[in-house]
Amino acid sequence: MKEKSAVVLYANYLDNKIGPSTNLRRLLEQQDTFKKYHIAFDVFSFGYRNNQGTNGRSSNESWLKNSMETIGKNFLPFSFLIIYLKYLRHSIRLVDLWKKTNRDSDCYIFEDIFTCYFFIKKVKPKNTKKLILFHHGSGEFFNMLAIYYPPLKHRIGLSWLLKIRNSVFRNINDIIFVSNFAKGNFRKIYDKVIGDFKFDTHVLYYGIPGDIDNQSLVEKRAQVYRDQQVISLVCVGTVNDRKAQHLIVEAFEMLDETIKKRYHVKIIGGGPNMETLKNRVFSSGDDKYIHFVGPSDKVNDYLLEAHGFILTSLDEGLPIALIEALKYGLFAIGTNVAGIPEAITDKFNGLLISPKVDEIAGALKRLLTLDLAQLGMNSRNVFLDKFAADINTAAYCKIINED
């Protein structure tokens, strides 16, 4: 069988602490699987931020960014400006860099719709090339952008997004979703227009290597669960409106002190809402129970020491952070949005809730009545059955090789 080349064009840094970067780093480690399927797999990106000398922002830069974000949530011209600065200019730059290499590939894969759009516009690939678009959301394109920047729902904003969407849909061969929910939601939302295009749709879970000895993990989890006087919960993700960590803070404000003192929550990650929430927690006195860690390179260490994972997102695809938690045998509290119920079964390996303050507070009360060790063991089995890397990388290869 002739070897096929496949390259991911990724307008970001590979060491960013976001789901697509993490997934691509892991795929690059699965070269043996790609070779087995006669695929030369590569990622073309901006490399690693640590090698660019761009670590960190000054306080003035952060202030300016946060100010622009606030304005962009209210005025359409600023929404466009921020989207250009955050996404479009990087996609344009990456495509231009790719063109200068004079390289070619049998299959092009895109992690976002903007890079795909500018590739089609600037490179004009031959129709013999296979184009694959990953969708990391809940099945509705631009929904996350509309949550961040509501003015995009204005007629002018929608018209611009529709132009980009249709151009991409006309040219791609496949869309890969990260959950069955996202694929079903996509087909429901775009039912009236799907017939005008000729792409196939697939589901591919994020595959994570099970690079930990199972017996050692069982012993470690047993040690953690022996002490449940204070239940340690970890929340991992950008601290923003969509991840909705404010719901955790508000839920604690509803709880009696007798319940609060049974928990210690570590919120790991930076973001625009972190300082506001830290101040609120300090003012309420709940800083005894909720700790904002900030960005960290030691997420796995925090997971190993925790009893459970909590995720309060308003919109998601299927977060890698949740799958990582299952890998380490943590029970999970998660909202019943998008693909999250594909990783959490209520009362089997955690609790499913609506993204509402009273439901989160209720889940924290109910949790005290459950067998947490058994829930955690069930999480580990869910991971092994659905999210192990070898299963999902093989499925990825089959999609690339399809005619």
Number of strands: 12
Give the mean pLDDT: 89
Query: What's the helix count?
Result: 18
- Shape descriptor reads globular
Low-confidence blocks of residues: 51-61
Our Rg estimate from Cα atoms comes to 22 Å
The largest sheet, given as strand count, sense and whether it forms a barrel, is: 6 strands, parallel
- Helix percent reads 40-55%
Going by helix content, strand content and strand pairing, the class is alpha/beta
Q: For the record, give the distance between the C-alpha atoms at the N and C termini, rounded to a whole number.
A: 14 Å
- Cross-sheet strand order for the largest sheet: 2-1-3-4-5-6
**SSE series:** EHHEHHEHEHHEHHEHEHHEHEHEHEEHHH
Our estimate of the beta-strand percent is 5-15%
